[in-house]
């Protein structure tokens, strides 16, 4: 029980820190340009077909703490991926997040374990799948419903999601096909 509480507390940090100070010479547009240069393709396969997102990746603990806090908008086909290496039980909250988000908690087999739709801005209530996950994908609130994304749908990213764009990255996620 103590271990579970510790993991949940660590996971909650993914969205609860104060904004990082920018160097004086870094403008909002230059940080936005830096984010767009590191976009990763993510494909969600649903009963309606496949849909591609180009998302930022929160790789470091600092990036995971910041997440999508203080953003005023999220692109329709944008978002952020939080890889969990090794897989773990992750818990997020919406403190200092200005817009609603859909949170997709992804099993190690690529299936969506839990989908929290329209997570409420500023909420301090933890959101978790309650099981270890390989990643969490955050999308603009309401986007999952618009596209018919549901628990059990399949997710892949990197060159595994878009083989024609295969490139050298350690972030290829190629789950086995569903049986």
Automatic annotation (TrEMBL):
Keywords: Signal
Gene3D superfamilies: Protein of unknown function DUF192 (2.60.120.1140)
Signal peptide (residue range): 1-21
InterPro entries tied to this protein: DUF192, Saro_0823-like_sf
UniProt KW Signal keyword: yes
Pfam families: DUF192 (PF02643)
Entries under PROSITE patterns matching the protein: PROKAR_LIPOPROTEIN
PANTHER family: UPF0127 PROTEIN MJ1496
The name this protein goes by in its record: DUF192 domain-containing protein
Organism the protein comes from: Sphingobium naphthae
């Amino acid at each position: 029980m103590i271990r579970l509480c510790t993991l949940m507390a660590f996971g909650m940090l993914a969205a609860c820190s104060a904004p990082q100070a920018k160097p004086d010479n870094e403008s909002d547009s230059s940080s936005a340009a830096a984010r767009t240069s590191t976009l990763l393709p993510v494909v969600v396969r649903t009963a309606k077909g496949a849909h591609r997102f180009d998302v930022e990746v929160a790789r470091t603990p600092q990036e995971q703490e910041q997440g999508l806090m203080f953003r005023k908008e999220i692109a329709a086909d944008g978002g952020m991926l939080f890889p969990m290496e090794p897989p773990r039980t992750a818990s997020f909250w919406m403190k200092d997040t200005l817009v609603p988000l859909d949170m997709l908690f992804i099993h190690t087999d690529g299936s969506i374990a839990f989908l929290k739709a329209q997570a409420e801005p500023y909420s301090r209530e933890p959101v978790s799948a309650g099981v270890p996950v390989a990643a969490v994908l955050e999308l603009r609130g309401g986007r999952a419903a618009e596209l018919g994304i549901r628990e059990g749908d399949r997710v892949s990213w990197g060159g595994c999601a878009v083989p024609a764009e295969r490139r050298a990255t350690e972030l290829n996620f190629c789950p086995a096909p569903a049986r």
